[in-house]
């Protein structure tokens, strides 16, 4: 059993790390026994304009429900990421940008340049009528201007809502509408693995349904894109005349910083809202301790800024710490399967942080692609977004890290703002596949999903967090009731993560995956309800049920069961059409891996779809379908089994 494989903390890490095992134990104890004192000190890593006097004023109880940290303090996060570094580090590198095509010139941006670019763009936003509290939708590729846009919003107190550049016009439209933003920042095109992504065209399509006042377009590939008179303007024209100074807005700790949409088990994606002070403390602190970050190290988080990992660990955490953060526009297999490691060598990356899905895909291509690069600069590896299977963990450790680099398997969520359960490289003996131990201030517990009883010792159940932490989301934008219902109603008094989890006899946490109707495809969260509603919008679809299925590379794949309308012939052509339909409606990441026509779906007598059975069929785990006695029509299952594609 992998549980018994332990990689002890390497000696030099135990000696030199910021946090060793003893410090971890002591600091963790203090963080839960004297949280007020602990957080008063830790929050000093952020420059406050007006110091806070109150620390944690959160309550998870229904009567008194609120999440609030450092509430009477004021600060500006852009000033924390830029201005405060200028006296010492103006000429130090802030962002290294590596383009999709290795032959395109890269960009090395100093703190002084990033400050000037941010101020100019912040002034341009103001000139375009953006005020404190306004929502700004960002639909940009992985270019430094995406970071500039985020920091410029933070500077003037506007709330950014980044929409991953792989999402469809339909998905973009829904997100613009939900947060009522009237300005969109985009580029002519994005580039990924040599392929162009028609960002401006997607924006135009989205805006047919939800008009906005202004679109600012970044010239990136130079594609000829139509501009709508009076609405669309060019990024460079807008900043040309702007001053390179812009006074940062004084923000309350609880003023909103950003909205990021994420999928849940029901309904449309929800706008996760993060505020300023607690998020700043949490991302800076986790970035420093989890990665043992020291000045002048080159740090690379390979996530896209369209996901929370990009927000917290490409932009805010590292820049708040004055780090060198590498932004990569491309993909791991372009021009070839060595690309990640070539980039590591090119910039002497010391800390590398990526999702298991990319590692599994590279592992499949063989060790040669890795071994022909040097990678001597690497000292620490990280994993995020989904469970990492022990085989991929061992490969990452042995082949990529030459057995030398600890791996931090960081468990967290869009909702948590930053790392929650993670090893610290100088403190935690590693068990491949386990996210290991809680970060400071995080109080996990495991409950019996049925009874809600808190389980002790070695056990398995649903993962909850029993008290607030500074980086916690504050609300679902525009729907505070949904925030409470989604996370705090199942296990009263605690935050429910949606994840299943096991704790072993050493107290290590092993995340087993989502136990709600959320699936995790290549580290990207998808709601099965979202895909189902896209399917039933097709005029030939009467009913649809979507479940996750095991997938070697993606972790989970998407398995869709579709009942077509009466009189429709279930042809191969229609099957392909429906797959493409979902891809167009949501985006390529939602493309079903398998689509099975189902003349009817297994239901209980009260008409509830039995997803448990559908999951078993999808996983081809048909030996034990469990209790089928409540099925209205048992023949339905036989039919699905007999007609399982592939
Ligand atoms: O199921 C867990 C999984 O990803 C979910 C959160 O997804 P998202 O909000 O998109 O954030 C991804 C980046 C943090 C979690 O509920 N997850 C994330 N990290 C891990 C993980 N599962 C296992 N191990 C992890 N390290």
TrEMBL record:
Mg(2+) binds at residues 536, 538, 541. Belongs to the ATP-dependent AMP-binding enzyme family. It catalyses: acetate + ATP + CoA = acetyl-CoA + AMP + diphosphate. Residues 530-608 form the AMP-binding enzyme C-terminal domain. Catalyzes the conversion of acetate into acetyl-CoA (AcCoA), an essential intermediate at the junction of anabolic and catabolic pathways. AcsA undergoes a two-step reaction. In the first half reaction, AcsA combines acetate with ATP to form acetyl-adenylate (AcAMP) intermediate. In the second half reaction, it can then transfer the acetyl group from AcAMP to the sulfhydryl group of CoA, forming the product AcCoA. It comes from Croceibacterium soli. It comes from the Bacteria. Keywords: Acetylation, ATP-binding, Ligase, Magnesium, Metal-binding, Nucleotide-binding. Its cofactor is Mg(2+). ATP binds at residues 385-387, 409-414, 499, 514, 525. Residues 24-81 form the Acetyl-coenzyme A synthetase N-terminal domain. The modification N6-acetyllysine is found at residue 608. GO terms for biological process: acetyl-CoA biosynthetic process from acetate. Acetylated. Deacetylation by the SIR2-homolog deacetylase activates the enzyme. One of its GO terms (cellular component) is cytosol. GO terms for molecular function: acetate-CoA ligase activity; AMP binding; ATP binding; metal ion binding. Residues 87-466 form the AMP-dependent synthetase/ligase domain. CoA binds at residues 192-195, 309, 333, 522, 583. Its EC number is 6.2.1.1. This is Acetyl-coenzyme A synthetase.
């Amino acid at each position: 059993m992998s549980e018994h494989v332990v990689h002890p903390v390497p000696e030099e890490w135990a000696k030199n790390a910021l946090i060793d095992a003893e410090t971890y134990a002591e600091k963790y104890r203090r963080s839960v026994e004297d949280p007020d004192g602990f957080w008063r000190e830790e929050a000093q890593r952020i420059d406050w304009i007006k110091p806070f006097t109150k620390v944690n004023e959160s309550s998870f109880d229904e009567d008194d429900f609120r999440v609030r940290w450092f509430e009477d303090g004021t600060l500006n996060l852009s000033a924390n990421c830029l201005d405060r570094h200028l006296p010492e580090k103006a000429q130090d590198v802030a962002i290294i940008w590596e383009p999709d095509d290795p032959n395109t010139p890269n960009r090395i941006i100093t703190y002084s340049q990033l400050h000037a670019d941010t101020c100019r763009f912040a002034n341009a936003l103001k000139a375009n009528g953006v005020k404190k509290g306004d929502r700004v939708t960002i639909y940009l590729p992985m270019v430094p201007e995406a970071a500039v846009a985020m920091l410029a919003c933070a500077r003037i107190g506007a709330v950014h809502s980044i929409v991953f550049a792989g999402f469809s016009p339909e998905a973009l439209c829904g997100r613009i509408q939900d947060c009522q933003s009237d300005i969109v920042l985009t580029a002519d095109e994005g580039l990924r693995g040599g392929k162009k992504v028609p960002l401006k065209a997607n924006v135009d399509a989205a805006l047919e349904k939800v008009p906005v006042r202004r679109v600012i377009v970044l010239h990136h590939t130079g594609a000829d894109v139509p501009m709508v008179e009076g609405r669309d303007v060019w990024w460079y024209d807008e900043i040309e005349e702007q001053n390179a100074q812009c006074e940062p807005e004084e923000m309350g700790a609880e003023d909103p910083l950003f909205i990021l949409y994420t999928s849940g088990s029901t309904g449309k994606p929800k706008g996760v809202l993060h505020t300023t002070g607690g998020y700043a403390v949490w991302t800076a602190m986790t970035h420093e301790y989890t990665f043992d970050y020291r000045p002048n190290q080159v740090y690379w988080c390979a996530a896209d800024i369209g996901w929370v990992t990009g927000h917290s660990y490409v932009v805010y955490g590292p820049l708040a710490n004055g780090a060198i953060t590498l932004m990569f526009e491309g993909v791991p297999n372009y021009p070839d399967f060595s690309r990640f490691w070539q980039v590591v060598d090119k910039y002497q990356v010391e800390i590398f942080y990526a999702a298991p899905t990319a590692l599994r895909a590279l592992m499949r291509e063989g060790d040669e692609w890795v071994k022909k690069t040097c990678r001597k600069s690497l000292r620490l590896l990280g994993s995020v977004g989904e469970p990492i299977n022990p085989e991929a963990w061992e490969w990452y450790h042995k082949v990529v890290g030459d057995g030398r680099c600890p791996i931090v398997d960081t468990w967290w969520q869009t909702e948590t703002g930053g790392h929650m359960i993670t090893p610290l490289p100088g403190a935690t003996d590693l068990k491949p596949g386990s996210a290991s131990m809680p970060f400071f201030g995080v109080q996990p517990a495991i409950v019996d999903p049925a009874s809600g009883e808190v389980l002790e010792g070695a056990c398995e159940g649903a993962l909850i967090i029993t008290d607030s932490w500074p980086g916690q989301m504050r609300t679902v934008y525009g729907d505070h009731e949904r925030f409470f219902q989604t996370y705090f109603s199942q296990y009263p008094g605690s935050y429910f993560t949606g994840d299943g989890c096991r704790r072993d006899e050493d107290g290590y946490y092993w995340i087993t995956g989502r136990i709600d109707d959320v699936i995790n495809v290549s580290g990207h969260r998808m709601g099965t309800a979202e895909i189902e509603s896209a399917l039933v919008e097709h005029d030939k679809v009467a009913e649809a049920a979507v479940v996750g299925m095991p997938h070697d590379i993606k972790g989970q794949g998407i398995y869709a069961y579709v009942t077509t309308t009466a009189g429709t012939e279930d042809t191969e052509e229609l099957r392909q059409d429906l797959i493409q339909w979902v891809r167009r409606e949501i985006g390529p990441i939602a493309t079903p891996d398998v689509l099975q026509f189902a003349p009817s779906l297994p239901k209980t007598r009260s008409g509830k779809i039995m997803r448990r059975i559908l999951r078993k069929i999808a996983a081809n785990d048909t030996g034990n379908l469990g209790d089928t006695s409540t099925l209205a029509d048992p023949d339905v299952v036989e039919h699905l089994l007999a007609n399982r594609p592939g």
